[in-house]
Amino acid sequence: MRYQQTGDLHFVTSRRRTNTPHVRSVMTAILALTLLPICAPSAQTNQDIVGSYSGVIGNMQGTLRLRLRPDGTLVATIDHLDLSAPWMLRGDEIHRQGSTLSFTVPSVRASFRGDFSPDEKQLAGTWTQQGRAFSVAFARENFIPAAKPSPLDGIWLGTPQLAGKNSSRTQIVFRSDASGREYCTLDALDVDSMDMECANVLLQGDDVSFDVPVAGIHWIGKIEAGGNALHGDAHQKIIQGGATQDVAIPLSLTRQQTLAIQKPLPTETYDPGLPPVTAAALESVLAKDLAVALKSGELAPATGEGVVIGVYAHGVSRVFSFGAARPDSIFEIGSLTRPFAGLLLAQMAAQHKVRLDEPVRELLPAGAVPQPSGAEITLLDLATQQSGLPAMPDNISTANMDQPYADYHLAALLAYLGKHGVANPVHAASTFSSLGFSLLGTALAIRSGESYAQLVADEIAGPLGLSDTVFTLSPAQQARFIQGHDEQDGPAPPWNSDVLAPAIGLRSTAQDMLTFLIANLHPDQIQFHAGGSFSATLPSAIRQSHQTQAELSSGMRVAMGWLYDAQAGNYWHSGATAAHSAFAFFNPKEDDAAVVLLNISPGLNGWFVERLGRHINQRLQGQPVLSLDR
Questions:
Q1: pLDDT, tens digit (0-9, with 9 covering 90-100), for 323-361
Q2: Can you give the pTM of this predicted structure?
Q3: Fewer beta carbons within 10 Å, N or C terminal of the chain?
Q4: Domains of the chain, earliest start first
């Protein structure tokens, strides 16, 4: 079973802080979390198609950039460099045959196949995402290299001067065109964040400055040492003492003759399997499997990190912890909040309070969002990531990046929707849209006449007895809320949220989450803690929420808030905030389930919480297991 990362990552990457023993460099971390590695072996000469191509994908303006690595490998990235809302996607499985170019984009579960015009100035084809297809045309941008290179042109290499452990060699390649305009790309060589496009590159005398929008960096400095050294600082907006400040991270670079070699990606290794492990025996087995992590790795005493695991198999359940966590510790669960929104929709539909195919516009305040002329976003579209909405709205303030969502309220969401609209003619994929689930929860709360938090408590948490699954902690719960950590082990504050809470805002324990998973496994055997109409419809609503609606990729489908691995039979989801990460799955075929809660954000070495979740699944099935030692 191979899981794909879900969509919390734009949350993680938007946070910048210095209340840790180090200053965290976005350039060494941000895109290591969001961008997937590329793999495009080709013996064909592709120099003729290298360049940048502008186009519109759905409702998003983007630039397709085709480059060649020194070994002749074709590289494809798609980006949007608006400083207010930059993004970047990486291509995989890139193939060219004659005039035809094809590639996949795993991070958004998409693929493209198109043909170049005879003069190679146009690339037109079909973009397919979550089973939906639509036409996309890219037009080549005309780059004419300068007849004489500028003093800046060439390859430069340096390392940010950080106290943290995750500094990465930073490589920048500058080039200028015939008009004198400068361009550059930045590679973080040790964390596989490659080909990040620059913007606003300026060379005025010896003064140099540029932005790297997708990494939140502004570099400013000078050419010195006879034109072979760049001395300057990479500036970031961070929070310190509750105020936004500009922090300068020294980053000097020296001119190179050849491109530096990228650090190889770590490979997955597997340990031999055991006979299927029971829920009762799993704790002792994992104690051995985690020995290295507990002594010197992710869960070592010096990190302050801990994990709580809840497991169920064939009628037996256990909850246990390792490291700094206790079995009853409370964690943020990030995007693992979303299956609750999907179930809430199914629950309200079972009670005839909403229809699955009801346009979301009809639940919002009258006149807040104009009615489109054609098909529009429905509640089911939102719950199954078929709304076409972007990951996040573009009118979120970045004034306080420690609490980026606390001040985003209903008025701002409606203002965004009024501008963006709710048309959805092709039921397009929404890239694990937190915006989509936030809108879904908000609309359901408006229809019910109560707050979203109260609605979840009434319809799901109360009937199931999930007393620690809440959006706001009581004083007693606060005492059990475990300190979270950022990706470099520094303390990180919890997130507060308002209108975005339905996508990211729940806190919970492993015991509560395990109870939720068992209810999903056996909806007709629920021991209800609250009666009434809420309980009466919950079993049928749970079954409805498991109905898959669209294929995301080969063998991977989407249900109402859950992802479904058809080959393994697992429903699953992961989640992360700036301080915690979570992973859960349940398998009706095998009658097992597990949840893993960890008090650290996903780091440069990937999602440890996901690797541990996969490892547990493999132990339960008696398969070779993903090693936890790296």
A1: 999 999 999 999 999 999 999 999 999 999 999 999 999
A2: 0.77
A3: C
A4: 38-140 (2.40.128.20), 154-256 (2.40.128), 270-626 (3.40.710.10)
